[in-house]
Write a structure and sequence with these properties.
The chain contains 8 helices and 8 strands; from the N terminus they run βαβαββαβαβαβαβαα. With 206 residues, it is α/β, with parallel strands linked by helices. An 8-stranded parallel β-barrel has the order 1-2-3-4-5-6-7-8, surrounded by 4 helices. Helix 1 packs parallel to helix 2.
């Protein structure tokens, strides 16, 4: 799938550990109501592994395919081919981006950057988009870094005016506008959707 920065606009990140109902049902509902990209992030307490993870990923991949939504994997390089992923999102401690780009030149690759040190040490030119955050305090990731605020997005936008950027971390309908106004192309959310009582309304507000 060809990458378009508009695909970052409403970017849903989810794994079974985040869900209060069946992951497939939740993604299907979100896909019907306007998300523009999906990241399969099966990680942390309660996550499944091995064959269970592959089978879950396949179900979610099929949903994305039916709705024309990019299916992006969080870090798991070994699942790129079995799940026919459109992309992968890498953190600073994950697989080296240069190795992934060399092996998969046409894959959509996102890279997380949280501070100046990470930025300076990263080959930004190899990433199709940057994940900036956590913008606000988040409880979804047990190892989350300190929040960087919308100012970090504004800095990245000034330094890399043409690079697609998605804000992530603690974003919800009440603060999404601040993130967009700072220069992001979109917002990536987990709990704002997995805990929503009305996905259609929440996605619309984002």
């Amino acid at each position: 799938m060809k990458f378009d920065r508009n695909q970052l606009r409403k970017y849903f990140v989810m794994g079974s550990q985040d869900c209060v109902r069946a992951p497939g049902m939740m993604l299907e509902d979100a896909a019907r109501n306007g998300i523009t990209a999906f990241q399969f992030r099966e990680k942390g307490p309660g996550a499944v592994f091995g064959g269970d993870k592959w089978r879950l990923g396949q179900r979610l991949r099929d949903i994305c395919g039916r709705h024309g939504i990019p299916f992006i994997i969080n870090d798991d390089v070994e699942l790129i081919e079995p799940l026919q992923a459109d992309g992968i999102h890498l953190g600073q401690g994950d697989t080296d981006i240069a190795r992934v780009r060399e092996a998969y030149p046409d894959l959509i690759i996102g890279l997380s950057v949280s501070n100046i040190e990470e930025l300076e040490a990263s080959p930004i030119e190899l990433a199709d988009y940057l994940g900036a955050g956590p913008v606000y305090r988040t409880f979804t990731k047990v190892d989350a870094k300190p929040p960087v605020g919308p100012g970090w997005i504004a800095y990245l936008r000034e330094r890399y005016p043409e690079k697609p950027i998605v804000g992530i971390g603690g974003i919800n309908p009440d603060n999404a506008k601040e993130v967009m106004d700072a220069g992001a192309d979109g917002v990536a959310v987990i709990s704002a959707l997995t805990r929503s009582r009305n996905l259609k309304e929440t996605i619309g507000q984002l």
